[in-house]
């Protein structure tokens, strides 16, 4: 899967977001339904953003705090 070893930094707006966890979305960090088309067995991570803010979204697939980056990519 096309994961990357760096987080995706986004200027996020408040609201309900669905972040990709399969690594296949063409709209990363957001889910575009690729997990269903490609039958990855993974589901997007729903996350409520309370206020507009900058966020670091995991793109390595190893975070223990999904969808947020916890630095797991740097421990390999």
> What multimeric state do the chains show?
single chain
First-to-last CA distance: 17 Å
The overall pLDDT average reads 93
Helix-strand string: EEHEE
Question: Low-confidence runs (pLDDT<50, min 5 residues)?
Answer: none
Give the % helix. Answer: under 10%
Question: Whole-number radius of gyration?
Answer: 12 Å
In the CATH classification, which architecture applies? 3-Layer(aba) Sandwich
Commentary on this structure:
This protein is mostly beta strands and 76 residues long. The protein has a single domain, classed as Ribosomal Protein L9, domain 1 (3-Layer(aba) Sandwich). It is built from 1 helix and 4 strands, in the order ββαββ. It has a two-stranded antiparallel ribbon. Strands 2-3 form a two-stranded antiparallel sheet. It starts with 7 loop residues before the first strand and ends in a 19-residue tail after the last strand. The mean pLDDT is 93.
Give a topology summary.
Elements: E1 8-12, E2 15-19, H1 34-37, E3 45-49, E4 53-57
Antiparallel strand pairs: 1-4, 2-3
Top keywords for this entry?
4 strands, globular, 1 helix, 76 residues, 26% strand, two-stranded antiparallel sheet, Ribosomal Protein L9, domain 1, mainly beta, single chain, two-stranded antiparallel ribbon
Brief write-up:
This protein is mainly beta.
């Amino acid at each position: 899967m096309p994961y990357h070893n760096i987080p995706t930094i986004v200027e996020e707006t408040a609201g309900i977001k669905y972040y990709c966890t399969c690594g296949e979305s063409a709209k990363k960090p957001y889910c575009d339904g690729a997990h269903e088309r490609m039958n990855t067995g993974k589901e997007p991570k729903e996350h409520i953003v309370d206020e507009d803010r900058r966020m670091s979204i995991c793109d390595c697939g190893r975070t223990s705090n999904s969808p947020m980056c916890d630095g797991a990519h740097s421990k390999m």
